[in-house]
Write a structure and sequence with these properties.
Elements lengths: L1 H10 L1 H6 L13 H11 L4 H17 L3 H5 L4 H4 L2 H6 L3 H11 L23 H10 L6 H6 L6 H34 L3 H27 L2 H23 L3 H4 L3 H7 L6 H11 L1 H29 L2 H28 L7 H39 L15 H10 L1 H31 L3 H26 L1 H6 L1 H25 L4 H32 L6 H34 L6 H21 L1
Keywords: ATP-binding, Membrane, Nucleotide-binding, Transmembrane, Transmembrane helix, Transport
Subcellular location: Membrane
Membrane topology: Multi-pass membrane protein
Length: 604
């Protein structure tokens, strides 16, 4: 009918711009059908709204050739207030478009440019009623604040959020188990030795292997090849290694004799590690998984499929989904696994949950990948051309390290990761040493750690719920600097309490409580603010920098951070006998690292 013909004429950018013979040669206008459908769907005969939205659509056409971006204009958030979209464009671009198209909105009528006749757009009553019925309810500020994800984005977010949930669930369960095994059998000081002589070599070997695999494998194959071996080991430890540990492990006396029979502070710790090498092996693999699972398995995939315009809304909520996992995992440990008759039965219960989480990670990754591929296919069929990714020559491991050191941007990101790894390691070993004094029985220790993990999950969800707008409102830099600032403040009473001594039960209880609060708030800030801001920093990088540079930082960088802190503390153990006696020196290192971390975040 008449009104649709006029709308089609106005809404066709090829028709409007070609009349002025000034169409730039490097621009293509192929989405007139999409523009017509948007205009006729919910504008009806409103001339002012028509002029405004048409200007917006043409502005988008000047810079976008992907129809997927135009479809976002039909999301509820945009339909609620189309004029707010117009305000987001620069005055210079709007003035340029007005000169080219001569779109004038007013009560008297609109005039086209060139030879296009002026006309009045009148929408039939039926069409107007249909448009009003399709209009969404008024803007929900609560929805925008709590869950600012709409339309087809919801399915994509939930699938990826499920991956994050089960990744963190498996990480929490294995972390609690490795700490219980090593701290109760070897002592908290053994962690420093294992991170230097076990975790660091394992991380170095892994990053070399991963760099090689990323050059020859497709992304799906690389994901499964990286993920599945960890869960195979966790299952094998429960079913094969642990039941036979008394056969394959030497006794403490044998290990001490091999080391010369000396029972000094450091050599005694090494002897305990040798006599419990299966627990030490589990610790190393679980520590490696903690870096690989979040840094590579999840965030590598997220950075590939989440565009930068969605990241500010998706990434804080990913942390919220991940914050639910420690609540579930911690209560599973505290209320079910730790209630077993002995530690072997508790290990069975934990391994069942870890295996289930591993299966779910693979299932939801497959579903998410299929959804992304389907969306890309739909975009190509609808006329949008997906931006091809630049092909770059593959780098060797040596070239990857050189590339990392020569890039100032990646160096600053690595300083953030190193800063967290060093600082959290300085305080965690002292706190866990106090925990062993308080809870010497493995099941009691496991129960406490399970409740602590749940508390971390609850605190993370609360902080994200109220702090989700920190990055959006105050900016990336404030969000990135918040974690080291919080850690610097809350560690002061913990160090003061240790300086005063923990010889009697009352002071020990107070020190454990302060250390628990310090660790709780540090981890909460890490999950709620540090992880999202650090991962957002990778998005502007090219494909190869994301894959190899990110892998080097997340695995090798974080391991070097924690291993560097462990090396310092190992030297202090040799000098002072145990880490608690060296707490003043640890505090000096701790605050030096935090200052460097803040400086790097400020420069990014």
């Amino acid at each position: 009918n008449k009104h649709h013909t006029i709308i089609s004429s106005y809404a066709d950018p090829i028709h409007c711009l070609n009349q002025q013979n000034d169409l730039p040669p490097n621009l293509t206008y192929t989405h007139s059908d999409c523009m017509r459908s948007i205009c006729s769907k919910f504008l009806g005969g409103n001339k002012k709204k028509f002029s405004a939205l048409f200007l917006v659509l043409c502005s988008l056409q000047l810079s976008l050739t992907n129809c997927t971006e135009l479809r976002k204009l039909t999301s509820p958030a945009v339909r609620r207030n189309s004029f707010h979209v117009l305000k987001s464009f620069s005055t210079e671009k709007n003035n340029m478009l007005r000169k080219r198209i001569n779109v004038r909105g007013g009560d008297a009528g609109d005039a086209t440019s060139g030879n296009a006749p002026a006309a009045t757009v009148v929408a039939p009553k039926a069409a107007t009623a249909e448009v009003k019925a399709a209009e969404p309810a008024k803007s929900s500020k609560f929805r925008d604040a709590v869950f600012p994800i709409y339309g087809d984005e919801v399915k994509k977010f939930l699938l990826m959020g499920a991956i994050k949930f089960f990744v963190i669930m498996a990480l929490t369960l294995t972390r609690d188990l490795k700490d219980t095994l090593v701290v109760t059998q070897c002592g908290a000081e053994a962690i420093a030795f294992l991170k230097i002589y076990g975790v660091l070599p394992a991380a170095t070997s892994f990053i070399a292997l991963y760099s090689k695999m990323s050059s020859v494998m497709e992304k799906r194959q690389l994901f499964y090849t990286t993920c599945i071996p960890f869960f195979v080991f966790f299952l094998a430890y429960d079913l094969i290694i642990y039941p036979n540990k008394d056969i394959i492990q030497p006794t403490l006396e044998t290990a001490t004799a091999l080391l010369g029979g000396t029972k000094s502070g450091a050599l005694e710790i090494v002897a305990k590690i040798f006599s419990n090498w299966t627990s030490a092996l589990y610790f190393v693999i679980a520590e490696l998984y903690s870096s690989v699972s979040v840094g590579i398995l999840f965030w590598q995939f997220a950075n590939d499929v989440v565009p930068i315009d969605e990241a500010k809304r998706f990434y804080p909520l990913f942390s919220q989904m991940g914050g639910l996992a420690p609540i579930v995992a911690g209560q599973y440990v505290a209320k079910f696994a730790s209630q077993a008759s002995d530690f072997g039965a508790s290990l069975h219960r934990l391994t069942y949950a870890v295996t289930f989480a591993g299966i779910m990670i693979c299932v939801f990754y497959s579903l998410s990948s299929s959804l992304v591929e389907k969306d890309d296919s739909s975009t190509r069929k609808s006329g949008g051309a997906a931006k091809p990714k630049k092909k770059k020559g593959k780098m060797s491991m040596k070239e990857s390290v050189r590339f990392l050191t020569q890039s100032q941007y990646l160096r600053l990101i690595s300083m953030l990761v190193l800063g967290y790894g060093l600082s959290i390691n300085f305080t965690e070993i002292m706190w866990k040493s106090l925990l062993k004094k308080k809870y010497p029985d493995p099941l009691d220790y496991q129960r406490f750690i399970g409740n602590f993990s749940s508390a971390v999950g609850v605190a993370t969800c609360v902080v994200i719920l109220f702090g989700v707008h920190v990055i959006r409102v105050l900016g990336w830099r404030v969000g990135a600097m918040a974690t080291p600032a919080i850690m610097a403040l809350i560690s002061i009473p913990f160090f003061i309490c240790i300086f005063m001594g923990v010889d009697n039960p009352a002071r020990l209880t107070l020190a454990v409580a302060l250390g628990t609060a310090q660790s709780l708030l540090s981890k909460t800030a890490k999950y709620a603010l540090f992880d999202p801001t650090t991962q957002m920093a990778y998005i502007p990088l090219d494909e190869e920098s994301k894959v190899k540079g990110k892998a080097a930082i997340d695995v090798l960088g974080s391991r070097m951070g924690k291993s560097g802190g462990s090396m310092i503390q190992q030297g202090l153990v040799f000098l002072f006998g145990n880490i608690l006696k060296a707490s003043p020196i640890v505090a000096c290192f701790y605050y030096s690292v935090l200052f460097t971390w803040l400086s790097a975040a400020n420069k990014l």
